[in-house]
Design brief:
- By secondary structure, the protein is an alpha+beta fold.
- Helices cover 15% and strands 27% of the residues.
- It is built from 2 helices and 12 strands; from the N terminus they run ααββββββββββββ.
- Strands 1, 2, 3, 4, 9, 10, 11 and 12 form an 8-stranded antiparallel sheet that branches. The protein has a 4-stranded antiparallel sheet with strand order 7-6-5-8, with no helix packed on it.
- A hairpin with a 4-residue loop joins strand 5 and strand 6.
- The termini are far apart.
C-alpha cells in the first residue's frame, strides 16, 4: 500500500493545529454562498429603509417658490433624526390636510422657517420687510423686492405663531403660497419631514443648502 496516497490519520494529540482545522472543517453545502449574499443584500435593504425613513430621505423641489435658493426639479437630502426647527432653516413639510388651488392631491412643501412657536410675525409690504418679534429680518436670499400678494387669502400682515408650530415663507415671496395664506397659516411641527441639508441633483447645484 502506498502510504503517500493513503496517509494514516494520526491521533488528535499528535496532530498539528493545521491538521486539526482541516479535519474540523466541513464542506459547504450547495447554495451556501448564495444564501450569504442574500443575507447581506437583505441587511442592506433594511438599513436603507431605516435610513431613508427615520434618519434622512430624498425629496424633489416642486415649483418656483424657493427660487433662487432652490430650483424646480432639484433633488435634496433632508435630515429628520432629532431635528428641531430653527429660524432660517429650509424645511420640507407634508401638509396632507390641504389641497391648494391647482393641486390634485396634497404635496410636500419646501419653505424657509422665519419664526417658531411663541413668536410674532409682521410684514410691512410698503418697506418690503418681515419683522419677527419686532426685529427686521436680514434676507439677502430674496430674488426681488416683496410686494403685497393678490387674492383674498393672503392679505394678512400680523401673525402670532402658536407653540409647536412654525411660520414659513418661500424665498420667492411674490410667487409663493406659504403661511401668509389662511389655508396654511402657521404649520404644526408634526408636519415637518426634515431640514434640507444637501443638494444632490443637478450636478451644477451639488453642495450644502
Amino acid at each position: 500500500m502506498d502510504e503517500y496516497n493513503n496517509p494514516v490519520r494520526r491521533p488528535p494529540w499528535l496532530q498539528s493545529p493545521e491538521e486539526e482545522i482541516e479535519e474540523q472543517e466541513e464542506p459547504r453545502r450547495p447554495g451556501a454562498e448564495v444564501y450569504d449574499w442574500l443575507q447581506l443584500f437583505l441587511g442592506c435593504v433594511i438599513a436603507a429603509v431605516v435610513l431613508f425613513n427615520c434618519v434622512a430621505r430624498l425629496t424633489r423641489v416642486d415649483g418656483s417658490s424657493m427660487d433662487n435658493t432652490l430650483r424646480h426639479g432639484e433633488v435634496m437630502l433632508i435630515w429628520s433624526l432629532g431635528y428641531t426647527p430653527k429660524q432660517g432653516d429650509i424645511v420640507v413639510l407634508n401638509k396632507t390636510s390641504v389641497i391648494l388651488q391647482g393641486w390634485s392631491e396634497p404635496r410636500a412643501i419646501v419653505k424657509r422657517v422665519v419664526a417658531t412657536g411663541g413668536q410674532t410675525v409682521d410684514i410691512d409690504y410698503a418697506a418690503g420687510v418681515v419683522y419677527v418679534d419686532g426685529q427686521p429680518l436680514d434676507e439677502p436670499y430674496l430674488p426681488e423686492e416683496m410686494h403685497l400678494p393678490y387674492g383674498p387669502t393672503m392679505q394678512g400682515t400680523h401673525w402670532e405663531v402658536p407653540e409647536g408650530s412654525v411660520f414659513v415663507l418661500g424665498d420667492n415671496r411674490n410667487n409663493s403660497t406659504d403661511s401668509r395664506d389662511v389655508q396654511l397659516g402657521p404649520i404644526n411641527t408634526d408636519y415637518i419631514l426634515g431640514k434640507a441639508v444637501f443638494a444632490l441633483w443637478p450636478l451644477d447645484r451639488f453642495g450644502i443648502v
